[in-house]
Description:
This protein is α/β, with parallel strands linked by helices. It has helices at 5-16, 30-40, 47-66, 82-90, 102-115, 157-171, 187-193, 200-215, 275-284, and strands at residues 20-21, 70-75, 94-99, 120-121, 124-125, 142-147, 176-182, 225-232, 237-244, 248-252, 255-259, 264-271, 288-294, 300-306.
Amino acid sequence: MSADPAFRADVLAGLGRRPRAIPARWFYDRQGSELFEAITGLPEYYPTRTETAILHAAGTAVAAAVGPARAVVEFGSGSSTKTPILLGAVAPSAYVPIDISGDFLRSSSAALAAAHPELSVLPVEADFTHAVTLPAEVTPLGKLGFFPGSTIGNLRPSEAVDLLRSMRDTLGQGAFLLIGMDRIKDTGRLVSAYDDAAGVTAAFNLNLLARINRELAGTLPLDAFRHRALWNEAEARIEMHLETTRDIAFQVEGQPFAMHAGETIHTENSHKYGDRDARLLLAAGDWTPVAAWTDPDDLFAVYLAQA
Ligand code: AVJ
């Protein structure tokens, strides 16, 4: 299978720049997606189970706030756990998942349509970081955007503002957005969520190098890398890196690279937000927060905002 040219470009550019960094979107080949599913069930990785509980508790209030006859527009292909909770609470007439990867989108949409025969499921294969034209069927319907998981945290603040503005362009004036945002908390709790004792997150991180070797004729010596997760206080984010334990030389598609012991490839940012940070970010993205729900330990928050 010939590699995605965007993957090739991001990897070659990312390994060539200093500090070396590869965008987190490339984690999610089949192995990476399966490893992420395993991460969501880890005892240390609280976000998924916490957000799911919040959605269960807040569903009725969200439905009351957004009103009837809506279209739920999910930015991403939808998760088998969280999406049905929202659909069950809001009972929309249409569901529009938007995702750049068509295969995953089609399979998850088909599964959801089978489970919700009364729902019009209208998948759109697109890059939702830019405004997306929604199917004509949903034009007359009020829109409720859904962006769970604190995936917004993968983006640096300026990129997150741009994404929020694109979502507003896609959904239109008066639309609602339900968005998950992970809270700042005890550093030890945060770091262990990204460096679990079983090493599943380490395998998830290292799989990116295995994917480069698989798809880009890479010769990276995986045994020379170790997973690192650290809290960056100044940026309020967890950073994941792959650190070399010795001097190495390798190729990617024939292009040579060398790394000294201790150098890293920065593979992910997961920004965390206090309540004020979250509200400021939404406002910068031209969204007005109208409600928020958290868990009893204030580990995670779900915001409802209006355009
Ligand atoms: C899917 C991006 C929300 O940042 O917490 C989980 C990905 N990375 N463990 C996150 C992830 C390491 C996750 N997001």
